[in-house]
Amino acid sequence: MTITDNLARIKKGLPPGVELVAVSKTKPVEDILRAYNSGHLTFGENKVQEMVSKWEQLPKDIQWHMIGHLQRNKVKYLAEFVSLIHGVDSLKLLREIDKQAKKHNRVIKCLLQVHIAEEDTKFGFDPDELNELVESKELPQLPNAQIVGLMGMATFTEDQLQIRREFKALKNLFDAVNAQLPEISILSMGMSGDYEIAIEEGSTMVRIGSSIFGSRNYS
Ligand SMILES: *Cc1c(COP(=O)(O)O)cnc(C)c1O
Question: Which of 5, 64, 67, 79 would staple 100 via disulfide (CB 3.0–4.6 Å)?
Fold first, then answer.
């Protein structure tokens, strides 16, 4: 199957209202161009340098999503062009995004990352921290860093029930936060291995890499 075949098949299966981020990390710009030429404009990367380099080489109407862990000192490299940052896991990072976005006269959309997996290797707010943050009204008014939703990753496991349980928990959390912040609308959850479950549990944005571009070679 080619990249464009994979993309078309996956898009056809997505219900209305669910957006697709094509995760192109580690893949060459030629692969991204194939997807782009078939009409897909939204791509996800998890390394700042790689994303900047691809942005420089590729058409400027591509929407770049930062899906990986983002260090505060690297926000400045993305601020000119990034369209959505999925992994905001601290107020300090949010403030830095606001500051850098201002310099470019932009509003950068952000998702708060929530730690839902049982594994403790993943970044993000704990559900308790998130609730506290939202209820305490501590969320500062940062006009250039706009919170538009939540993002989470399930445990990497074969246990479908566990994955479903974790996505359900994130959706419940989303609904609770949404009651406090009516402007949020995006729930980013689901990857190649679990996006169907994520959609059943309320995802509005899936991040799919290997099912589109093939498996990654990190060596
Ligand atoms: C790599 C990555 C994905 C895509 O993973 P696949 O299994 O290749 O679909 C999704 N989300 C995040 C945060 C990632 O780092």
Answer: 79
- Please check whether residue 219 lies inside any domain of the structure: no
DSSP code string of 87-112: EE--HHHHHHHHHHHHHTT--EEEEE
Cβ-based neighbours of 214, under 8 Å, separated by 6 or more: none
**Least reliable range by pLDDT among 111-120, 182-191, 197-206:** 111-120
The structure's pTM equals: 0.96
The total number of structural domains in the chain stands at 1
Q: Which residue has the tokens 């419940």?
A: 172
Residue 218 lies inside a defined structural domain of this protein: no
Q: Which residue has the tokens 């093939």?
A: 214
Is the shortest distance between the CB of 117 and ligand 1 below 6 Å?
no
- Our answer on whether the CB atom of 67 is closer than 6 Å to any ligand 1 atom is yes
